[in-house]
Each structure stands twice: as C-alpha cells, then as structure tokens.
Amino acid sequence: WRPPPPIRKQRAAFFDPSIGKKNNKQQQEQENADQEEDQLDILSILVSIYGSKELFVDEYRTMLADKLLSKTDYNTDSAVHTLELLKLRFGENSMRHCEIMIKDTDDSKRIVANIHSTLREKKKQQMIDEDDDNNNNILPPVVDAAIISHIFWPSIPGAETALATTKHHPRIQEQLDEFSTEYGQLKNPRRLVWYNHLGTVELELDVYENEDDDVPTTKAITCTPIQ
C-alpha cells in the first residue's frame, strides 16, 4: 500500500502534466525495484535448497542448456533478463559459462542466416551456369543448427555413443555436409561435429487415409533424427 500524493501535487499535475509523468515514472521504477528484490529473495530460498551457490549455478546451467537447445527461433530475451538478475546475486564470474552459452545461441542465428544466404546464391549461380531459368527448382536450405562451444556447455548425455553409432539418411547427411563445408569456409579453421541424436526433423507425408482416395492428405510430422 502506498499513500496517495498530496492534493497540492495533484493540482499542479493538472496544470503541468510533466509532474504527473514524473510521479508515474518514479512509481514504475519503484515497482521494478520491488520485483527484482522479490526475485532475489526467491534465489536465496533456492540456494538454501540446493545447499550451495555452486550446486545451484550448475543446475541452472543444465536447465539453460536444455532451454536454449530446444529453441528453434534463437530467441534469448528471457534468458538474458534472467542472467542479469543472477549476475547481481552471484557475480559475473560465476555466470560466465551461462553468458557464453547465450552468446553461442545469438551467434548461431547470425551464422545460420549467413550460410543460408550463401547456399541460395550458389544454387542460383549453378542454375545460371546450367542455363536453367526455372527458379522454382531452387530448394531452400533445410538445415538449422545450434552451434555451441562445447567446453562451456554441460556434457550432453549419450553424445559419444551417438557419434559412433547414429547415422543419418544419405539425403539428410548430404545437407549436413553442405552446411559444414560452408561453416568451415566461414569460420576457418573451426569445424562442426554433429550430435546426430539431438534436434528435430520436420517431414511432410502424403497419406491416403482411405483406399478409395484419389488425392492424398498432406500431414506435417516433427520427430527426432533417431526416429
């Protein structure tokens, strides 16, 4: 509860709108400060549950990794906001790995857009060289990637086994190799190592639901690479 402003200020605000705007701004700043204080109090409770600051930060880093890897739009706004609050509570050094993880996600968005643009231009040039004027034959790039600096990220369960045993369909592998080649040229001497068991694949299937159907029904399916 906050007491109402004095009548004198209310009258002044009637003639000078800037005073009312100033009061609204101060009220908003106070509400934001109260909200941040409440969030810091919640952090204190969580730290006491985990037993130490280090255990809490490690658990948060694992949760952040799952959240970032599950995003297909590379949006990190909420993660950045939470990270800034955690820096206030634990310091920048403790949250350094999390900051790099978010930076990796932002960089991935720019790198993928750059590679997609390069691939489209190369395919257009190839069609010009082949005297093919049908631009409809140019298929858009289908590979998106979260490119991570693995030494700063939590270990990924099953990664070593998947690298040795999981194989993609040749058509998918061709797209991955094409993407890897462009990345190598863009970020030389860096190279990509794919975690084949992670990610999702979007498929469109033509399904004849009944034996008498002459026209199939197109259905969109999202699955994991292993499926």
Provide a descriptive summary of the structure in words.
The chain is mainly α. The protein is 59% helix and 6% strand. The longest helix has 34 residues, at 17-50. The termini are far apart.
Keywords:
two-stranded antiparallel sheet; 7 helices; extended; mainly alpha; 2 strands; 227 residues; 6% strand
The proportion of residues forming helix, as a percent range, comes to 55-70%
Low-confidence stretches: 4-15
What sort of overall outline do the alpha carbons produce when their principal axes are compared?
Answer: extended
Helix/strand-derived category reads: mainly alpha
The count of strands amounts to 2
Strand order of the largest sheet: 1-2
The DSSP helix count reads 7
Strand content: 5-15%
H-E order? HHHHHHHEE
Distance between the termini: 56 Å
What layout of secondary structure does this protein have?
Layout: H1 7-15, H2 17-50, H3 53-70, H4 77-90, H5 96-129, H6 159-165, H7 170-186, E1 201-207, E2 217-223
Antiparallel strand pairs: 1-2
Helix pairs in contact: 1-2, 3-5, 5-7
In short:
The protein has 7 helices and 2 strands, in the order αααααααββ. The protein has 227 residues and is mainly alpha-helical.
